[in-house]
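The instructor's notes for this session suggest beginning with a concrete chain rather than abstract definitions. Hand out the sequence below and ask the class to guess, before any prediction is shown, which regions might be ordered.
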Amino acid sequence: MAVIAGLALVADQIVKWSVRATIPRGDDWLSVWQLALGHNQNDGIAFGLFAGAGRAVGVVTALVLPLVVLALGLFARARLLAAVSAGLLLGGGASNLSDRVLRGEVTDYIEVGLWPSFNLADVAIVCGACLLLWIIGQDEDERTAPR
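After discussion, reveal the predicted structure:
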């Protein structure tokens, strides 16, 4: 879990640093069909929701994250896929939280069509959540299967 979380956090932070260092804010560097790599800032939550609430989101995240770490750590102890899911959720959350704490906003750089811009941390969070839901669904199927 810790390795996946660390990889997600470091990968996202490296890309964010590179984007901030090379692409002027509001500009796109690469645009192919409906996909672009650009430099945007988001002070809300994932996908531009709750814009303007960056500090409040950071405080809530900082308060909730330790509880999430504990719960996911207990859930993931005996399951590899659960550990991967937890690592993705924690790494993505920690990366965006570090942006909020250090900059007051999150750097987003992936743009797809009309969808709000997002970053690798958001991808990790969404993939981790989907994997967690799939695992929970599999567990439920096992519990309700006739024996």
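Then share the key points. The mean pLDDT is 86. The beta strands are 28-32, 35-42, 106-112.
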